[in-house]
Specification:
The structure is a single chain. With about 120 residues, the chain is α+β, with helices and mostly antiparallel strands. The chain has a single domain, classed as Sandwich (Immunoglobulin-like), CATH 2.60.40. The chain is about 20% helix and about 40% strand. Strands 4-3-6-7 form a 4-stranded antiparallel β-sheet, with no helix packed on it. It is globular and about 50 Å long. The termini are far apart.
Length: about 120
């Protein structure tokens, strides 16, 4: 007896889900740190290093839950590259306790809080 079309579609949907979850299960190859801002004595600058040998497309979202402000910034990173993100690049000065997410194409997002 042939397999019913609904069962075939169900199996295809499960297979697609497994492929998507598996492909995004690699952690983002980034190392992050902060330094004091020279332009804003109360703010910080996010430092990001690409620890892989490949170019990366990244999208950063910062959220200040106290005042409800959000900052979004997209950037590319060269293999083994380094960049700084702060008030000069985004108009945003990072403050302690803010939530940050960096989405990297083909990897799991990196989520952390400003120290």
């Amino acid at each position: 007896m042939p397999t019913p079309p609904r069962k075939i579609l169900s199996h295809l949907a499960i297979l697609c889900f497994v492929v998507v979850v598996t492909s995004c299960s690699k952690p983002a190859p980034l190392h992050t740190s902060f330094r004091r801002s020279a332009l804003d004595s109360a703010g910080l600058v996010l430092q990001v290093r690409n620890t892989s040998g490949k170019s990366l497309s990244c999208a950063m979202t910062a959220i200040n839950k106290t005042d409800g402000q959000t900052c979004r910034y997209s950037f590319s990173m060269a293999p083994s590259g380094f960049t700084e993100i702060g008030i000069m690049e985004t108009g945003w000065s990072f403050k302690s306790g803010e939530s940050i997410e960096i989405a990297v194409e083909g990897h799991r997002s990196l989520d952390f809080k400003v120290p």
